[in-house]
Design goal:
single chain, alpha/beta, Rossmann fold, five-stranded parallel sheet, 11 helices, 5 strands, P-loop_NTPase, transferase
Length: 269
């Protein structure tokens, strides 16, 4: 029987790098965001009152079906520990707690202005390829793009609100936050904390040789480089491409940096 954990959190905050590191351990399998969370959400909807046959479905049947979606998706994997990735998992903490009470959710976070900066940098880099992030639309400015990703159903806004829901919610005991800044500057510390959190024996990771290939997916999404991982872990100092007012707009959004707000004692590394 597999042990299942979940990777979630903010976009452009190290989840792909984390997956690339985790999969170095032969006991683990991990990857980029996949379809499982979406399948789970679809099944929840199909078994709801909008389906005229929902009167024949009780909660125990729903539980078995939903748990089966996750377990059967990975039934052919030989690895003992599964890490499934989706920004939606932070908004599904109640479902995870019911179906997999022993599972953990590792949420990747990053100082918010640099999340917006990273997205804008990708857009500016891929001059001739409109991105799926903005529904392949052409035009707009850094301001409209920042507004688009930051709104409640945007790429960043949704993930940010889901993260707050998980952090302040009833099932925060299953949650851990991994800061991008720590992951790239002190990966040994970050990985040791993760292993301790999920109750796995320590493993010697190679931070000098990282492999992850999602080039075909990124090209189809019109955003080459979206899941590119540098071959060596390390922090890169750079100037932002955002105008000062856009950068400053998100400067104070990293609530996890305020210890007084961590009312549930969520581990943060």
């Amino acid at each position: 029987m597999h042990r299942i954990h979940f990777i979630s959190g903010l976009p452009r905050s190290g989840s792909t790098l984390l997956s690339a590191l985790l999969r170095q351990n032969p006991r683990f399998t991990a990857g980029m965001s996949g379809p499982v969370a979406g399948l789970l959400g679809t099944m929840l909807g199909e078994m709801s009152g909008r389906n005229e046959f929902s009167v024949f479905i009780d909660d125990e049947q729903r539980r078995r079906v939903l748990k089966g979606v996750v377990e059967n998706f990975y039934a052919d994997r030989d690895e003992a520990v599964i890490f499934d990735t989706s920004r939606a998992w932070c908004a599904r903490m109640n479902v995870i707690a019911e179906l997999f009470p022993q599972s953990k959710v590792i949420a990747c976070v990053r100082h918010m202005p640099w999340v917006i900066d990273s997205i804008e940098r990708l857009v500016q880099k891929n001059t001739f390829q409109p991105s799926s992030i903005f529904n392949y639309t052409v035009g707009g400015t850094v301001y409209t793009r920042a507004d688009g990703v930051a709104k409640g159903d945007g790429m960043v806004g949704y993930a940010y609100n889901a993260l707050k829901e998980a952090f302040f919610g009833a099932h925060a005991s299953q949650l851990m936050l991994v800061q991008y800044e720590t992951l790239v500057s002190d990966p040994g510390k970050a990985m040791a904390a993760i292993y301790d959190f999920i109750g796995e024996a320590a493993f010697q990771h190679d931070f000098e040789h990282i492999e992850f290939d999602a080039e075909a997916f990124d090209i189809k999404a019109g955003t080459p480089g979206l899941h590119t991982v540098r071959p060596k872990v390390g922090a890169v100092e750079r100037r932002t491409v955002l105008p000062p007012d856009v950068f400053n707009r998100f400067e104070n959004d990293a609530f996890w940096r305020n210890p007084e707000l961590n009312i549930h004692g969520v581990p943060i590394v």
